[in-house]
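Obj: model holo form, ligand = manganese (III) ion.
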Amino acid sequence: MNRRQSLKLFAGAAGALAAESLFGRPGALAQTAPAQPAGPFKLPPLGYAYEALEPNIDAQTMTIHHQRHHGAFITNLNNLIGKYPELAASASDPVPLLSDLSKVPLDVRTGVRNNLGGHWNHTFFWELMTPGGAKEPGGELKSAIDRDFKSASEMMEKLNAAGLGRFGSGWAWLIVTKDKKLDVVNTPYQDTPHMELGGKPVLGVDVWEHAYYLKYQNRRGDYLKAWWNTVNWDRAADNFKKAMA
Ligand code: MN3
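Output (holo structure tokens):
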């Protein structure tokens, strides 16, 4: 073995050790991912690899966020069906129930709000991100952003401010309001814009600490800036079109 080969071998061993310290042992995270629970609610696939959004969002954060956090909403929803069987109808489309939570019996309403909201929010969020997407909005969405915010960069600053301004856990959104204008809002916990606001989301970003803490720690603003590099503007344009229909 020459020096170059031995250095390579060493780098590989160090990498394996680093992975081991992060995950306990190599592959442990995948092996201990919670089993898919039985029931109508399913964890939707990401549509890209856990590392695909690096360096903006790291693979470990994506893995835990998708498998554990989103996975927990799925488990909880399938468990809630025992107490509230009508909930099964929301597996194919959660929006009607999210838009009118008063239909949900009081003893399960908070559970439905948090878990169905969380399921909807995260599904929306995964689909809104992509590796190597367009860098800015186009078409009708761009015209509407220019009309309601002057420019995409002003809208992005407002959305960053809404994310930073959400005390504790929640989400920041670009929505189409009931009067078909674009607006930036934030919501607490797993509330969706369909709830009290009656808004239809075009963009949404998770500002719970679990979405960024491993890489950014307390620097939520840095996470928000980096997050824009992951936005799937084609998906945002589709969201806008549906919201305006
Ligand atoms: Mn989350």
